[in-house]
Amino acid sequence: MKDLIHIPDFTPDEIRNIMRLSHTIKKNPFQTALKNHTMAMIFEKPSLRTRATFEIGMVQLGGYSIYLQPGDIKLGQRETVADVARNLDRWVDIIMARTFPHDTIVELAHWSKVPVINALSDWEHPCQALADFFTAIEHGKDMKNFKMAFIGDGNNVCHSLMLLSAQFGADFALACPPGYEPEKKIIEQTQTLMSKNGGTLTVTHHPDEAVENADAVYTDVWVSMGQENESIDRKKLFQPYKINTQLLKNAKPDALVMHCLPAHRGEEITNEVIESKQSVVFDQAENRLHVQKAIILTLLHKDTQIHVSK
Ligand code: CP
Ligand code: NVA
């Protein structure tokens, strides 16, 4: 049994299969492969895209989901994570969880007898990254010759994008304020994967340098969920790490502008840039649906039970 806790859980071949399956599912959205199947969705943090796309995805695959909202089950407070896992896995076929500490998802997966999907922790956001690369491929980008520039915080979303770049053998350049670099372990994992698959990793404090010749320019909020008490300091420190028209001029002229959303216009990205023709942010959001359906089908070994219209 397999989980999706972090990007290296899928090999480059499995990732390419998920990209292909996502494409097929996008063209053939309504399926019955998950008839009589249920997903438990545990949320410790708010969500629009993740909750909506997982829930809609299960319905479109013929299944059902239950939403366990923050404060509802009080994971680890009312009951241990291990006990929650060993109750849920008696009732449902798959669990997805959005948690504060990454270790909570790791522990859930350890105890659960059904697959567990990381729907964002403080460490990674693998479903987001897979949908983002699917979006870039859909927009004609060639992963053998692709550079993503990420401007902002070297945390969860950035971690998953770095690791996924490495699985595709693509180049990844991050510009972040000093002290906001990715975790050392993620840098090492990325470098190890890149030595096998190709690609290069650059971590700099200079946005111009990161964006140079990029095929996609990506950003995320300056203050992630759970960091609200650092808001004042972060908003000062991150000021030079904003995607605006001037910065975008250093990228390739057809570079995609990407953001996982929610966006704070005027902070990490200007309204002009996010509303520009280069922006694919709503394609990314849409593709969360298609790619997560492919992920669920893959983890439940139902990927061969898809009906394709002629
Ligand atoms: N990008 C993303 O995960 O959005 P939500 O927080 O709304 O789920
Ligand atoms: N880095 C952000 C991503 C939101 C989808 C956060 O963790 O809040």
Task: Please tell me about this protein's structure.
With 310 residues, the chain is of the alpha/beta class. It is 41% helix and 13% strand. The protein contains 12 helices and 9 strands. Helix 7 links the parallel strand 6 (171-175) and strand 7. Bound molecules: phosphoric acid mono(formamide)ester (CP) and norvaline. Residues 47-50, 120, 128, 260-262 line the site of phosphoric acid mono(formamide)ester. Phosphoric acid mono(formamide)ester binds at residues 47-50, 120, 128, 260-262.
What portion of residues belong to β-strands? 5-15%
Sheet with the most strands: spatial strand order: 7-6-5-8-9
Query: Share of helix among residues?
Result: 40-55%
Q: How do the helices and strands follow one another from N- to C-terminus?
A: HEHEHEHEHEHEHEHEHHEHH
How does the helix and strand content classify structurally?
alpha/beta
Distinct compounds present: phosphoric acid mono(formamide)ester, norvaline
Low-pLDDT windows of residues: none
Give the radius of gyration: 19 Å
Major sheet: size, sense and barrel closure? 5 strands, parallel
Our measurement of the CA-to-CA distance between the termini, rounded to an integer number of angstroms, reads 32 Å
Shape: globular
**Number of DSSP strand runs:** 9
Query: What's the tally of helices?
Result: 12
**How would you name the oligomeric state of the polypeptide chains in this document?**
single chain
Average predicted local confidence, pLDDT: 97
